[in-house]
Specification:
It is built from four helices and five strands. It has 126 residues and is α+β, with helices and mostly antiparallel strands. It has one domain. Strand 4 and strand 5 form a beta hairpin. The longest helix is centred in the N-terminal third of the chain and has 21 residues.
Length: 126
Protein backbone atom coordinates (compact mmCIF):
# COMPACT_ATOMS: atom_id res chain seq x y z
CA UNK A 1 0.00 0.00 0.00
CA UNK A 2 2.75 2.51 0.90
CA UNK A 3 4.53 1.74 -2.38
CA UNK A 4 1.37 2.66 -4.30
CA UNK A 5 0.94 5.93 -2.37
CA UNK A 6 4.58 6.82 -3.02
CA UNK A 7 4.22 6.19 -6.76
CA UNK A 8 1.03 8.26 -6.99
CA UNK A 9 2.70 11.10 -5.08
CA UNK A 10 5.74 11.04 -7.36
CA UNK A 11 3.56 11.07 -10.47
CA UNK A 12 1.57 14.02 -9.14
CA UNK A 13 4.78 15.89 -8.30
CA UNK A 14 6.22 15.28 -11.79
CA UNK A 15 2.99 16.40 -13.43
CA UNK A 16 3.08 19.60 -11.37
CA UNK A 17 6.64 20.36 -12.47
CA UNK A 18 5.84 19.66 -16.11
CA UNK A 19 2.84 21.98 -16.01
CA UNK A 20 4.79 24.75 -14.34
CA UNK A 21 7.64 24.57 -16.85
CA UNK A 22 5.43 24.61 -19.94
CA UNK A 23 3.63 27.84 -19.06
CA UNK A 24 5.13 30.61 -21.22
CA UNK A 25 6.52 33.65 -19.44
CA UNK A 26 5.50 37.14 -20.42
CA UNK A 27 8.36 39.35 -21.52
CA UNK A 28 8.95 42.56 -23.45
CA UNK A 29 10.21 42.68 -27.04
CA UNK A 30 11.54 45.84 -28.71
CA UNK A 31 11.41 46.79 -32.35
CA UNK A 32 9.32 48.55 -34.96
CA UNK A 33 5.74 47.90 -35.95
CA UNK A 34 6.00 47.09 -39.66
CA UNK A 35 4.10 45.17 -42.28
CA UNK A 36 5.17 41.60 -43.00
CA UNK A 37 6.21 42.44 -46.57
CA UNK A 38 8.66 45.23 -45.74
CA UNK A 39 9.92 43.44 -42.63
CA UNK A 40 10.93 40.57 -44.90
CA UNK A 41 13.17 43.04 -46.73
CA UNK A 42 14.42 44.61 -43.50
CA UNK A 43 13.30 48.10 -44.57
CA UNK A 44 10.63 50.10 -46.39
CA UNK A 45 12.74 51.06 -49.44
CA UNK A 46 10.89 48.85 -51.94
CA UNK A 47 7.59 49.56 -50.19
CA UNK A 48 7.99 53.32 -50.65
CA UNK A 49 8.39 52.84 -54.39
CA UNK A 50 5.57 50.32 -54.65
CA UNK A 51 3.04 52.28 -52.58
CA UNK A 52 4.10 55.83 -53.46
CA UNK A 53 4.49 56.66 -49.77
CA UNK A 54 7.27 58.50 -47.97
CA UNK A 55 6.95 57.58 -44.30
CA UNK A 56 7.22 54.29 -42.45
CA UNK A 57 3.69 54.76 -41.07
CA UNK A 58 2.12 55.40 -44.48
CA UNK A 59 4.04 52.54 -46.09
CA UNK A 60 3.07 50.12 -43.33
CA UNK A 61 -0.61 51.06 -43.52
CA UNK A 62 -0.62 50.87 -47.33
CA UNK A 63 0.91 47.38 -47.23
CA UNK A 64 -1.57 46.30 -44.54
CA UNK A 65 -4.35 47.53 -46.81
CA UNK A 66 -2.95 45.28 -49.55
CA UNK A 67 -3.09 42.16 -47.38
CA UNK A 68 0.15 42.19 -45.37
CA UNK A 69 0.06 41.61 -41.60
CA UNK A 70 1.39 43.71 -38.74
CA UNK A 71 4.65 42.34 -37.31
CA UNK A 72 7.31 43.42 -34.84
CA UNK A 73 10.67 43.80 -36.58
CA UNK A 74 13.87 44.24 -34.57
CA UNK A 75 16.43 45.94 -36.85
CA UNK A 76 19.34 45.13 -34.51
CA UNK A 77 18.79 41.38 -34.47
CA UNK A 78 16.93 41.29 -37.82
CA UNK A 79 14.24 39.15 -36.15
CA UNK A 80 10.59 39.38 -37.17
CA UNK A 81 7.78 38.32 -34.86
CA UNK A 82 4.17 37.80 -35.94
CA UNK A 83 1.58 39.46 -33.73
CA UNK A 84 -1.64 37.70 -32.82
CA UNK A 85 -3.42 41.01 -32.24
CA UNK A 86 -3.81 42.81 -35.57
CA UNK A 87 -5.82 45.79 -34.25
CA UNK A 88 -3.65 47.31 -31.53
CA UNK A 89 -0.52 47.67 -33.73
CA UNK A 90 -2.39 50.01 -36.13
CA UNK A 91 -1.98 52.92 -33.69
CA UNK A 92 1.81 52.32 -33.70
CA UNK A 93 2.35 51.68 -37.44
CA UNK A 94 5.91 52.56 -38.43
CA UNK A 95 6.95 53.39 -34.86
CA UNK A 96 9.50 51.99 -32.43
CA UNK A 97 7.65 50.12 -29.69
CA UNK A 98 7.82 47.67 -26.84
CA UNK A 99 5.49 44.69 -27.07
CA UNK A 100 4.74 42.78 -23.89
CA UNK A 101 3.40 39.27 -24.26
CA UNK A 102 4.24 35.61 -24.54
CA UNK A 103 6.10 34.08 -27.45
CA UNK A 104 4.94 30.94 -29.19
CA UNK A 105 8.37 29.84 -30.42
CA UNK A 106 6.93 27.24 -32.79
CA UNK A 107 5.05 29.88 -34.81
CA UNK A 108 7.25 32.89 -33.90
CA UNK A 109 4.08 34.68 -32.79
CA UNK A 110 3.82 37.03 -29.83
CA UNK A 111 0.52 36.80 -27.99
CA UNK A 112 0.19 40.52 -27.32
CA UNK A 113 -0.71 41.74 -23.85
CA UNK A 114 0.33 45.37 -24.36
CA UNK A 115 2.06 47.66 -26.86
CA UNK A 116 3.70 50.91 -25.78
CA UNK A 117 5.77 53.49 -27.61
CA UNK A 118 9.49 52.97 -27.07
CA UNK A 119 11.20 55.54 -24.97
CA UNK A 120 13.94 57.42 -26.69
CA UNK A 121 16.99 58.79 -24.95
CA UNK A 122 17.18 61.92 -27.03
CA UNK A 123 18.60 64.96 -25.37
CA UNK A 124 16.76 68.17 -26.09
CA UNK A 125 18.90 70.98 -27.41
CA UNK A 126 18.55 74.32 -25.68
Amino acid sequence: MSHRVLMVSLLALCAGFAGAQSAPRSRTYSGNIMDSTCAGNGNHNAGYKLTGTHTAKDCTLACIGSGAKFVLYNPSSKLTYKLDNQEEPRAFAGEAVRVTGTLDAATETIHVAKITAARTNRTKKK
